[in-house]
Amino acid sequence: MVLLTGCHSHQAQPTVPPLKIEVAEATLRPLPRRMRFIGYLQSNFDAVIQPRVNGFLVSKHFESGKPVRRGQLLYRIDPSQLATSMYAAEAALQSARAQAIEAKNNYERAVPLARMNAISQAQLDQYTAQYHASEASVRSAEQSLQNARLNVSYTDIYSPVEGIAGSSNAHIGDYVGPTTEFNVLTTISNVDTLSFDIALPMSEYLRITGNREFIYDNDGLLSHIILTLDDGTHYPLEGFYSHTRKDVSSATGTLLLVVKFANPDQSLKAGQFARVMCDVGPSEEQVVVPVRAVNQAQGVSSVWVVRPDSTVQFRRVETGTVQDSLWVIRSGLQPHEVVALTGRQKFHDGAHVIPKK
Questions:
Q1: Please, what is the average pLDDT of the chain?
Q2: In angstroms, how far is CA 198 from the centroid of its own chain?
Q3: Quick check: 229 pLDDT over 80?
Q4: DSSP-assigned beta bridge partners for residue 285
Q5: Which of 22, 59, 258, 267 has a Cα-to-Cα distance from 145 of 20 to 30 A?
Q6: Which residues, 6+ apart, have CB-to-CB distance to 102 below 8 Å?
Q7: 325 CB-contact burial (10 Å; exposed 0-12 / middle 13-18 / buried 19+)
Q8: Using CA atoms in the order 39, 40, 44, 49, what is the torsion angle rounded to 10 degrees?
């Protein structure tokens, strides 16, 4: 029997040539520290509408959620009981004035009689005292009448500001007033200007500003404050710094800087979700790379670094903002490191490339 043995030939696997790619160098560039913040717009302030007098509510003159003008009638309280007190005050004033006239006449008759010794000095003093007391009674009655008239005027409640009316806490027929359960009737939200809280971590704040002694003097810290709406459009009016809230959040360790946006046409609404971008502090040297160098997927930003031996390395980075078609790299990349601009889909760690700037 003859055994035949086959010959097996081994073919060499082809070597993948290095990929030619475009690269760029990470550089330092003085740029403003552009930061993004998200949150909700708030009304400039809320005017609390409270009745000054007690009485039954007889009418309501606004719609909840609708604009109201400054000086617009909001509520009317039944003035009947207060009007009765006003009429009584008017009668008391007339009586006081009549008594004052009588006291004045008695005093004026007594003065010449006293000079002739027709009456004693004690009688003159008595007439003088009665005259001054009657004048004081008139002034007191006038003040009582003024207060009674004010109370009647308080039965008409007007809006002190222009804004958006909240829901009404009381209904027609309810007994309202300072000493009742309806001591607050509604609120008017002023929306001529809306505010936004910028929550800046204290660590970041101190890094930007240094260990300043008074952390609430932040005028000039924020600039180029831009509001982005839900649909991605930029609000045409730039915001401005207003003040710093006095309390630092102990839970999050943040300082709240309040910025405001003028709202002349009331296109902005209180409670509206918003994104705000602004420059924080002076310009600083920041690492930047072209936008094409950064890949973003599932919330992770990354670059491919080209090492001196022309091999590539995957690296995660923390990005800042895009300025002048450049990504600001906050961490993960050093100045003068080289990053790939093309060919990223074909890379694996350690792959050889031929860089071309």
A1: 89
A2: 9
A3: yes
A4: 30
A5: 59
A6: 134
A7: exposed
A8: -140
